[in-house]
Amino acid sequence: MARARDLRARGDPVSGLLPLSLSAVAVLAAAAAWLARDRRRLARRLRDEQAERAGQRDALARAALTRERARIAHELHDVVAHGVSMMTLGVGAGRMIMDKDPVRARETLWAAEESGRQALTELQRALGLLRAEGAEGGARTRAPQPRLADLADLLARVRTEGLSVDVVEDGRPVEIGPALELSAYRIVQEALGNTLRHTGARSACVTLRWRPGFLDLLVRDDGRAGPGAGTGTADTAGPALVGIRERVTLFGGTLETVSLEEGGSELRARLPTVDARATYPPWEAVSPPR
């Protein structure tokens, strides 16, 4: 009895700890609630930033696509202008010699008619490309557009940049329209530029493979796989391959970028050389010999 009275007089230590424990629990509960709110806030911010980055990537992809379409349309404009000029000159010449040489006049007018048809076709393609909004302005040079005959100069410039490159022409070349020839040149140019910028290749080979109804453009290198490498249409490629894809699509062709077993990669662009679309053999049947 005396000891109990003594404990009550000095205070029970266990009962003294109870308020402190309750206070600690309350603090921990408040801290846990604050951390949970902060975690939810950070998660929302992360989702918002991810959505913003995705939107920026889409905007950059659309801008690159618009620039490429505008550039191709500008080039086609030069081709159309040339065709209309030839048509006008042919009609004028035919009119002047109609009475003196009817046979020659008919041939001249026929050539003018063909130029008109070709110019109309290329104009329709250009208008189709301009479905994208806007284009960057600025002064543009009016130099003649390159053709496949200018590939030698292009390869010489590429060699000065440190890439050893050869060209192989397989099959019998046929006459193709100036717009298709320009696109073929640009495809080779952009493919080699992509090789220089992204693959670290030391050598490359350009093959022009002529077959009835289509032209294959193959650009092979011995570097590491560049952007978009892998069987497919290079949807994840950089700006260079975006331009190539647009040019190929414009003429109803196909595009592949593949990694080679022996190392390196190969870009394969197939362009129809006739208006009537045919059933083409698979790539494996027309690839250049290993």
TrEMBL record:
Enzyme class, spelled out: transferase
Domain Signal transduction histidine kinase subgroup 3 dimerisation and phosphoacceptor: 68-133
Pfam families: HisKA_3
GO CC field: membrane
Enzyme Commission identifier(s): 2.7.13.3
Gene3D superfamilies assigned: 1.20.5.1930, Histidine kinase-like ATPase, C-terminal domain (3.30.565.10)
GTP-binding keyword on record: no
Key words, A-Z: ATP-binding, Kinase, Membrane, Nucleotide-binding, Phosphoprotein, Transferase, Transmembrane, Transmembrane helix, Two-component regulatory system
GO molecular function list: ATP binding; phosphorelay sensor kinase activity; protein dimerization activity
Reactions catalysed, as given in the entry: ATP + protein L-histidine = ADP + protein N-phospho-L-histidine
Entry's transmembrane regions: 16-36
Keyword Oxidoreductase: no
Protein's UniProt name: histidine kinase
Highest classification ranks of the organism: Bacteria, Bacillati, Actinomycetota, Actinomycetes, Streptosporangiales
